[in-house]
Design brief:
about 150 residues, alpha+beta, 2 domains, three-stranded antiparallel beta sheet, 5 helices, 8 strands, about 30% helix, about 25% strand
Length: about 150
Amino acid sequence: MTIDWERAYSEHNNQSIILPLKWNPFAVRRVHDLLHCERCGECCKYGRVPVTQVDVDRAPEIAPYIQREGERGFLITKGGCPFLKDNLCSIYDRRPDVCWLFPMQTPITTDGREMIVLRLKCRSALSAAQVLYSEAKCQTVPSAPDSN
């Protein structure tokens, strides 16, 4: 099966795709190594972003933008994150964990395995997905039958 990535990106932009990788620290690192930010700022254009107390402790300047819903906290970013300046994160080294993980999303369980989910929100995510699917395709090529 061949995937038309440009078509997939245009038709499914801002949707999620399950990657052919089990969720683990090595796979997360692999995805991050493939991401090459083009400074489009798309990753920072959400209405709200879930944050934890650890995020607030790391970057106290986000506290005024936090809205609580019970035990959960959200950084309110309507119209774009207040820390996005010239398409760069002004708190990049201390950004919330969910921002650090982006474009990865909460893993999904399929066939008893937690798989990495990637949000196709930018061209960098598309490029990473292309590489990972290409690698997976190469790994699943059937071997030649034994000549015994």
